[in-house]
Amino acid sequence: MKKVLVFGAGMVARPLVRYLLEQPDFNVKVATRTVSKAEKIISNHPRGEPKKFDITTDALELEPLISDADLVISLLPYTYHVEVAKLCIKHKKQMVTTSYVSDAMQELNNKAKEAGILILNEIGLDPGIDHMSAMKIIDKVHNDGGIVTSFHSYCGALPSPKANVNPFGYKFSWSPKGVVLAGRNEAKYLKDGKEVFIPGEELFENYSIVTIDEIGEFEVYPNRNSLGYIEKYKLPNVKTMFRGTLRYIGWCETWKKIAELGLLDSEEHNIKGLSYKDWLKTLLPETGDDIKKSVALYLKLDEYSAIIKRLEWLGLFSEEPISIERGSALDVLTTQLLEKLKYKEGERDMIALQHRFIIDYPSSHKNEKIIATLINYGEPDGDTAVARTVGLPAAIGAKLILEGKIKLTGVHIPTAPAIYEPVLKELENQGIIFSEKKIR
Q1: Which of 126, 130, 331, 383 is catalytic?
Q2: Where does 5-121 have alpha helices with state H?
Q3: What's the CATH number of domain 2-126+386-434, 3.40.50.720, 3.10.129.10, 3.40.50.300, 3.30.420.10?
Q4: Which of 64, 96, 192, 292 has the most CB atoms around it within 10 Å of its CB?
Q5: pTM, to two decimals
Q6: What digits encode the pLDDT tens for the residues 91-111?
């Protein structure tokens, strides 16, 4: 019987844990700060064990937990992954995460190889399914003698069209703070052979409109550093390399103004007893009696603009008291967003992922465009699409590692056929399937 240790029981954990519990030879321990969440996920399964664990206060328990497992899945905040990985190396335990590989994690590559273990990262949705589905096409193109000259990839976790009923065009199906913090990332990509750098404060100014068949038009803005994937995806001849985030129309202009207002600042303050209106006044250099008019003036917007209407709908101009006593502007914002941007009973989320390739075939002097699209919806009153598309790839990867079907060692992302072929095949069995269109 193999022992799987899962750190974390957050918004994407349930499909992962339930998939592993369906395997007859796995025991699954879920270690989390809020043990009631683990108990709910496990639901009295005989091979599941909830464990109360807080890495910020129970650090001494971390090593014995890891040493007792055969494989560790870390759904902790990414800042803790390296600490977990070092103990996995020490005790020669396999490890899986859905997070981006940090420089500190990559530095553990040789030590992981020496220990004979695999540390598999970026095996969720984005990153994860995006890598695997892209590499499946890229490797086939290369085998057929083709050259990828342009690659665009777009991904978004959104309300389904029927659930898109609030002014922000968004609802939370994963960490609210993660969504907000992503809006401060700088970005790099390649366009027509030239590198483009976008500072974090200009991120939301640099968006375009794309149309995805069946679901409509979206804004897309750059997602982190696309340049590193030129080598990872083995595309030395590519002239355009762009990875972007999808949102409904109106998102980027709204978040540009939210940033200008200082709502993404992370410095903590005492805000006990303040209303949202009074707190907002502290962020402005000068205000009058009408806070809405003052904010509009500061942001150089019409008082009746859609953006001001969105901020008003969010409650930021209200006399309602703030629910936390101390925190940053970012904390106040995310608390209110989480309260207002909830999924209601029966509503479904949606993930949209699309790759667009332009390919040259030198031997035939022909070119081809390939569009690969994944649209997946959550289950009403069940698992969200985000939870399934993030959690299931990690669970499947863990299963394959423990069964000895993935034999790699070191620090990896799922771009090798030995990983992506069996994972994508099993995802199809779980109803997560790409459509592919070729245009010649």
Answers
A1: 126
A2: 13-21, 35-42, 59-67, 81-91, 103-106, 109-115
A3: 3.40.50.720
A4: 96
A5: 0.91
A6: 999 999 999 999 999 999 999
